[in-house]
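Fold this sequence, please.
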Amino acid sequence: MLAGAALTGAAPASADSGPAPGVTYSEFDIPAAKGTTHAHVLTVDLRDPHVRVDLLHPGAVGARATVSAMADASGAVGGVNGDFFNITETQHPGVEATGAAVGPAIAGGRTLKASVPDGQRFGPALPPGTSTRDVLGVGVDRRARLDSLALDGSVRTRDDRVALGGLNQYALPVGSVGAFTAEWGGVSRVRATCGTDTQRAAPCSTDTYEVTVRHGRVVSAADVPGSGPIADGTTVLVGREAGAQWLRKLSAGDPVSVHHRLVAERSRVPFRFAVGGYPVLRDGAPLPGLDAKTSAVRTAAGIADDGRTLILLALDGAPAYRTGLSIAEVADTMRGLGAQDAFSLDGGGSSTLVAREPGAATVSVRNHPSDPPERAVANGIGVYSRS
């Protein structure tokens, strides 16, 4: 059981028996630079064969739901919110916000999406040396780890080939071709052609093209990216600038082959689950250059015991605790809880931790969201237990 006393300067933890065997819940105060904050923590023993973690998601990449709704729909006993996401489009009037997450996402071993360019992300500035490709996940070996997932993909025709620049993501690199599958959902694909690799607020591209490929052949094309559900066996290719020009060479009936996968840049172990965010602690040491000034309500995940323990933390957003922690304090907090590696997730009004009360059939929100009611988010980390 997690002990609050393990955290230097923290008040003793109050803990219940947890929502399930192998999963414990605790809460405690943390004296911080800008005032006392309150933490809610789920500790998950991945050595327990009855326990697993996976991605909470609303059934489509371009969609949002509350953590509690996603947890109950999937049978999770607990969880926290996940990645930063495309929450608004005030910089592109008339363009629909997709609700899609920033980074890569894998659920149940199935790839859902790749990462947007660094300059297109939502959320605070990335620490030096990190990128939107960074993930926290659990491999097929049941060990939690940090890694980076890069997209490896291509579009092939009879005579040509182009590298794939994106997969089910709300922003494509300038000049690229991106693939959208049934996992994307029905939300508009126009946002994928807005901004640049370095400036999220840059205007939408005026040179776009979209090609629909069904069962390996081109069936339709359009000058402007569309919307609506994408059927199984169908891929919609969206191009901007040079990518649009390449797609214009295709005609109805042309054979097209699309391949894609996410490649772990450090580990060779396939992920069963992965969620985006950014690292704050590696091998027991905070990353250089972490922000120590800006305090906020935060959500984070830590890895202990050589990947056998996952620590999920969400701060309380009640007025008495809303000053929160800086990112540097998050790293120190996770290290104090025994984590060797830690990962920052979306915070502020998104920070949510849910867990079942002992004997309950559904989860309850354990922290107070700072922007009530509970915010709909792109994804999360779910904790599951089977008897």
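The radius of gyration is 21 Å. The helical segments are 67-74, 242-247, 327-336.
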